[in-house]
């Protein structure tokens, strides 16, 4: 398993970096749309949508939503409205996570809620990454910056959790996560943000407001991870899929990004960072 994880990571990482830095925005959007559609099939599995006709309907709605987002990629009012709505949705997801398993009847018992949840997880992620990558000034570099923040947070949480983890973060949702891990990962990620901002010109400031914003972005990335874990636990599955050997599915790899990317773009639009 470890060997598979390493080999897959060594293949995917250069491809991801190349795609972010070198692909034209239109091609990047198409490639990312294909990835998101694969994620959509995995979402159906996680959300217990088993009927082929209903799965197809969800994927069609997802594709139309991506197309609508693309048509409004330069409409700042549309983008900001969607980002604020997405922020509100993630606060709702936070309530569901905190009240699990009592909340399951709400977010799992209603097909419409599962449809909307999947759209809020996938569409704003695609829009945020496409919008960021398309920016002529610092665009691709900021996408990589965001990913580095999440990677550092994940790594910091893993090592600090193993060393100091005592208090469980959400034992009913993800028993392996601890508050100490979250704190360690957040500190490491904010430190990385400061170092990168100080040494590379990405047009990003580092202030008290920015530091607080980075903390919030990392906390939202944890929420994205927990939300997917909650759905997988309810569905009785370990991974969202098996397309990535040793890593599971697409959603297993981008769960933190689904919540962090829209908040990161929102922070940029509001001048918080």
Question: Which features does this protein show?
Answer:
mainly alpha; 10 helices; single chain; 273 residues; 3% strand
Description:
There is one protein chain. 77% of the residues lie in helices and 3% in strands. By secondary structure, the protein is mainly α. It has one domain (2-269).
- The tally of beta strands, per DSSP, is 2
Instruction: Enumerate the strands of the largest sheet in spatial order, edge to edge or round the barrel.
Output: 1-2
List the quaternary state of the chains.
Answer: single chain
- Helix content, binned percent: over 70%
Q: State the major sheet.
A: 2 strands, antiparallel
The total count of helices amounts to 10
The number of domains is 1
Structural class: mainly alpha
| Portion in strands | under 5%
Compute the separation of the termini in Å: 39 Å
Q: Indicate the radius of gyration in whole angstroms.
A: 18 Å
Q: What is the typical, i.e. mean, pLDDT?
A: 94
pLDDT < 50 stretches: none
N-to-C series of helices and strands: HHHHHHHEEHHH
Any idea what the shape is?
globular
